[in-house]
Write a structure and sequence with these properties.
The chain is an all-alpha fold. The protein contains two helices and no strands. Helix 1 packs antiparallel against helix 2. The longest helix is centred in the first third of the chain and has 22 residues.
Length: 50
């Protein structure tokens, strides 16, 4: 598996975690924390794609 595929897999896992947090309690700070993690991963994927 190449580096981007591993990163994309991690992105999907974090995205799922964010959705789960949101569905359990949209006002939980967990949603913001996980969203920040997701943003970081998406930015990393974008940088590696350039």
């Amino acid at each position: 598996m190449d580096k981007n595929s591993e990163l994309e897999k991690e992105i999907e896992q974090v995205r799922f975690k964010m959705y789960k947090c949101y569905l359990e309690n949209p006002t939980d700070p967990c949603v913001i924390d996980v969203s920040t993690q997701l943003d970081t991963l998406l930015n990393k994927l974008d940088e590696e794609g350039k």
